Each structure stands twice: as C-alpha cells, then as structure tokens.
Amino acid sequence: MKFFVAIDKEENIDYGVIVPDFPGCHSWGETIEHALANTLEAIEGWIEATIERCGTITFKPSTLPALRENPD
Predict the structure, then answer these.
(1) Taking residues 14-27, what's their average pLDDT?
(2) Positive or negative CA dihedral for 30, 17, 58, 49?
(3) 8: number of Cβ within 10 Å
(4) Which CATH number among 3.40.50.300, 3.30.160.250, 3.10.110.10, 3.40.50.1010 corresponds to the domain 6-69?
(5) How do residues 46-55 score in pLDDT, each as one tens digit?
C-alpha cells in the first residue's frame, strides 16, 4: 500500500516525518533513510494501537489533490 509522508529538515536538526493518513503518526531520523525506516515502525505501532483500541481499521489512502486542498 502506498501513502504520502511529509519530510521536514531544518538546519542542524534531524529529519522529521509525518504521515497525514495516520493522525498523530510521526517519526524522525538523522538521515532520510533512517527517518523513513523509523516511520514504518511508527505506522506499525499506530495500526496495532488503533486495532487494540477500536477493533478494526478502515483505511483509504489520501490522494495528492486532497492533501493539497487540506494539508492538516
């Protein structure tokens, strides 16, 4: 499954990643590769916690136009 992530990098700070389709799911890393690997772990944790709390997940990935229209 594919979904969008947003990567942010400020001077002298690690790469930050947010996953708009998974509210509150974010990660970081010293390199882009490390940040993305950590993000996969964060998504797995998010899914496990959501299933534990709600029993199931209904998921439809956002489209790029939808994210551009509502980036929050």
Answers:
(1) 93
(2) positive
(3) 13
(4) 3.30.160.250
(5) 999 999 998 8
Beta-strand relationship, 15-18 and 26-29: antiparallel
Distance in angstroms (rounded) separating the CA atoms of residues 15 and 27: 8
61 CB-near residues (< 8 Å, 6+ apart): 1, 2, 3, 4, 21
What H or E segment, with its residue span, contains residue 27? strand 26-29
Strand, coil or helix: what is 67?
helix
